[in-house]
Amino acid sequence: MRLRAFAILGVTGVLMAAAPLLAHHSFAAEYDAKKPIELKGTITKVDWMNPHVYFYIDVKDEGGKIANWAFEMGPPRLLERGGWKKSTMKEGDEVIVSGTLAKDGGKHGNARSVTLANTGQKLGGASSEGTIP
User: What is the pLDDT of residues 27-67, one digit of tens each?
Assistant: First the structure.
């Protein structure tokens, strides 16, 4: 009975440890490095959590229509080492995002850098590069 309990506990531990790895994805699987994108918009939401930080911006096209775009960045700890703080971007801030478009052509991408329009401060954010420029 005791051996069976240890076996179940061991299997459960392995599965729990592997769960974050299964949820993670590679840059190449989701984004097309041959499709750079640069957009200017207003922050509508920031999700500062593992495994990646996501933020959302409203972008106005030439016709005046507004579309909401999602951008992925690196993990919070990596971004913090590169100068980011959880409070660096807030709802209502205007930003210029340089990055890579998603392979599916949807309104989302991977942010290589983000420039805060009001200060001109430019920070790296690429999860694809593994380091912050």
Answer: 677 888 899 999 999 999 999 999 999 999 999 999 999 99
Radius of gyration of the chain measured on its C-alpha atoms: 18
Q: Using an 8 Å Cβ cutoff, are 100 and 110 in contact?
A: yes
Fold of 26-124: OB fold (Dihydrolipoamide Acetyltransferase, E2P) (2.40.50)
Q: 83 and 73 in contact (C-beta within 8 Å)? A: no
Query: Phi and psi at residue 2, in whole multiples of 5°?
Result: -65, -40
Q: Residue 92: which residues within 8 A CB-CB, separation 6 or more?
A: 42, 43
Written as six digits, the tokens of 94 are 């205007």
CB-based contacts of 104, cutoff 8 Å, min separation 6: none
pLDDT at 74 over 60: yes
Give me the residue spans of the domains in the chain: 26-124
Question: Which tokens go with 3?
Answer: 């051996």
Rounded Cα distance, 52 and 60, in Å: 26
Q: What's the one-letter identity of residue 30? A: E
Q: Rounded distance, CA 112 to CA 33, Å?
A: 11
